[in-house]
Amino acid sequence: MTYHLAIGDRSHSSWSLRGWLLFEKFGLTVECHSGVLYTGDFDRLLADFAPARLVPALRLPDGEVIGESLAIAETLAERHPEARLWPEDPAARAMARYMAAEMCAGFTALRGDCPMNLLKSYADSAPRAEVLADLARIERIWARARERFGEDSPWLFGRYTAADAFFAPVATRIATYNLPVSAAAMDYVNAHLADPAFRRWRAMGKAENRVQPSYAKPYPERPWPGPAPLPATIADGPSENAACPYSGKPVTDFLRLDGRVWGFCNPFCRDKTLHDPEAWPAFMAMIAR
Fold first, then answer.
1. Which residues 6+ apart lie within 8 Å of 235 measured at CB?
2. What confidence score (pLDDT) does residue 171 get?
3. For 138-153, what is the mean pLDDT?
């Protein structure tokens, strides 16, 4: 049984991030197929996922195609109740679905002025009043969920749920554009930035290195505010390992970390590790042996 997920550029496609997190965070296996946004390559991708017009799009094992993130979330929750995508408590579950739906339909000023860009962070983006109003609404509903159901967890409903996946790109926008939010809201943002699954997604986006010029903003830049990655560099072989930690195939591409050289089966496997070694459990387990 194989799910196939169509996604766009990892650094820029906020909806793709949501769709991927619905699998990655809940232990569901999926095969991803990507296309470059705003190019013929994206049209090529979607031709294989008709009738979907946007990403993410999901092809079920029986061949049925589902578009729209909420439909994907509900389908996965129905097919995999053991994954617990939504909260168990009925009131919490209703609130989580309401918040996810509002995310899909609302916050147009924030989404329009601050498109997701995981390759940059700005010192000051001078947000308009409309963006500040969206942020105030987001803070209000985040606080309501965490006060009622968050317990001592950093997540909205006590553990990571689909609602957190839907708000992950909002957290990245706050990080990229250094948007003004309360300390409590920033704690929630930082939980996303430190989350290993999100760090893997961002590292893969940096490995893709797909730059969308229209996303560039004329603001002074600052370092990415998430956890600093371990300092790795591209290297020549030979490596200590003969097989790639991800595929098990023979190694052809290499990086150096802490004076030791490690090999991978292709440049993408190497580069996604290069950009955040700690985010990859298979790699960290290999170098700890």
1. 254, 255, 256, 261
2. 98
3. 96
